[in-house]
Amino acid sequence: MASCAPIAVALDAPDLDTAARWAALVAPHVSTLKIGLELYLRYGPDVVASVRGASSVQIFLDLKLHDIPATVAGAARAVARLRPALLTVHAAAGPTAIRAAAEAAPDARIVAVTVLTSLGEGDLARIGLAGPVSGAARRLAALAVEAGARGLVCSPQEVAAVRAEVGEDIMLVTPGVRPAGAALDDQARVATPEEALRAGADLLVIGRPITGAADPGAAAAAIGASLRRAEAARS
Ligand code: C5P
Q: Would you tell me the crossing angle of helices 16-26 and 216-234 to the nearest 10 degrees?
């Protein structure tokens, strides 16, 4: 069986049993499972063991830490024992907080969130971040990488610009991915999985197109196969 498509399945489930069931179905086909704030806050650290099961899939803890450096360090240390491969911190928490997370969880890849895609230019101006969204995203990306982040979350539309800013060694993680013809749900600016990879993304966050399918395992396998075909066509 072909395995390990560069996909992080967003396990945005209403309860732990559903998350664990989705995880077991998709784990043979994808590299990563993403646990977000809602599931983590409802069920606590045990959620990680429940979704990991017996698989060797990577865990992406998307907790978006944003606090003073000592608190971010303590939080990162607290979750490091869960052995997440990826842990998110807001770049706007500042370089000292990002460095603190990287030092407190040295085995996790700290992934910095630049600008939430839910924020428009008007919102950014009110927050006090001047200029276009892409400028703020590039600035925050550079700051985060300099402080020790080894990954960044950005929209498929920003991937190429952010890649130019930070170079090849940084993992770029993109949500807002929809296979051609799939429902957009509440995502506005989307790219297909093939487009996102072509633009330079390393890991695609995909939730509902997989978890909302009648057979999530088959949906994950199909997207993985389409990525491999696109890759083969390019090489
Ligand atoms: O179901 P869907 O594929 O839209 O899931 C996308 C996942 O990525 C969700 O867990 C969502 O919280 C997350 N996300 C996003 N847009 C961002 C950052 C994270 O959709 N800018």
A: 40
Pocket test residue of 12, 41, 174 for ligand 1, highest count of atoms within 8 A of CB:
12
Catalytic status, residue 34: no
Active-site position among 4, 43, 50, 64: 64
Do residues 80 and 105 lie in contact, with contact meaning Cβ atoms separated by under 8 Å? yes
Tell me what percent of the chain is helix, strand and coil, each rounded to the nearest 5: 45, 20, 35
Task: Write down the pTM of the prediction.
Answer: 0.94
Q: Which atom of ligand 1 is nearest to the CA of 212?
A: 1
Both tokens assigned to 57 = 């899939």
Q: How far does CA 149 lie from the centroid of its chain?
A: 13
* pLDDT tens-digit readout, 145-162: 999 999 999 988 889 989
Read off the tokens for 210: 């997989």
